[in-house]
Specification:
- It is a single chain.
- The protein is an alpha+beta fold.
- 38% of the residues lie in helices and 20% in strands.
- The protein contains 6 helices and 8 strands; from the N terminus they run E-H-E-E-E-H-H-E-E-E-H-H-H-E.
- The strands form 2 sheets. It has a 6-stranded mixed beta sheet with strand order 4-1-8-5-7-6, sandwiched between helices. A two-stranded antiparallel ribbon has the order 2-3.
C-alpha cells in the first residue's frame, strides 16, 4: 500500500466532506491536552522544489512511500534505546503531522475512524535521534542539503529514503505552519 503526504487537512479526501467538523474534532483533542489550536492556512503552501532537475517534496525525491517502509521506521523507533513515541505510531494511518509542539501522540477516534495527531516538531526530534542508527549522517545535529541529495541518490528501497520523506513532511509542516496528513 502506498502512503503519501497530503498538504492540509482539507486536501485529504477522507475529510473533504466535512473539513470544518474534522478541524473542530482535532482542536477539541488538542484543547483537552492543554495545547494550542490548529488553524488551517487558507492557501496550500508550495512545498515542492526542483533539485538536480527533479521535482521534489522539499528535499525528498518522492512525496509517497510504502506503508511497510514507514512501519519499519516505526518498529526501529520502538526498539531504540531512547523512546521515540511519535514515530512508534507509524503502523497505522492516517497520522496528522501538526505544527504544534507536544511530546506524545494523541489518539483520536470518532466512531470507526482512528487517527493519530503528532507534533511535527517531535517527529523531527525523533527522526534526528533515529538517524545515526540507520546510517544517516547529520551535521551539527541537522540534515544537510548534501546529505539529503545523497539519500535521494541511494534509491527508494533504502530505509534512509523513507526517513527523508517523513523528515521533510515534518520540516515542511513546521516551516509552513500547516498540517500534513500521512495516509
Amino acid at each position: 500500500m502506498s502512503v503519501g503526504a497530503n498538504i492540509l487537512l482539507a486536501s485529504w479526501s477522507e475529510v473533504q466532506p466535512d473539513v470544518a467538523g474534522e478541524l473542530k474534532v482535532v482542536n477539541n483533542a488538542l484543547s483537552s491536552q492543554g495545547l494550542e489550536s490548529y488553524d488551517e492556512p487558507t492557501t496550500v503552501p508550495d512545498v515542492y522544489t526542483v533539485i538536480d532537475r527533479r521535482h521534489c517534496f522539499g528535499r525528498s525525491a518522492l512525496d509517497a512511500t510504502s506503508a511497510a517502509s514507514l512501519a519499519s521506521l516505526g518498529a526501529a523507533a520502538k526498539s531504540s534505546e531512547v523512546p521515540l513515541a511519535a514515530l512508534a505510531v507509524l503502523y497505522t494511518y492516517p497520522v496528522y503531522l501538526l505544527p504544534i509542539d507536544f511530546r506524545e501522540p494523541i489518539t483520536l477516534r470518532t466512531g470507526q475512524f482512528l487517527r493519530y495527531l503528532c507534533s511535527s516538531h517531535e517527529i523531527q526530534r525523533n527522526l534526528l535521534s533515529l538517524a545515526p542508527s540507520i546510517g544517516i549522517t547529520l551535521r551539527n545535529g541537522m540534515l544537510s542539503d548534501d546529505a539529503a541529495k545523497a539519500i535521494n541518490a541511494e534509491g527508494e528501497d533504502d530505509r534512509a529514503f523513507d526517513w527523508l520523506f517523513l523528515f521533510e513532511a515534518a520540516r515542511l509542516s513546521v516551516a509552513h505552519r500547516c498540517a500534513i496528513v500521512i495516509a
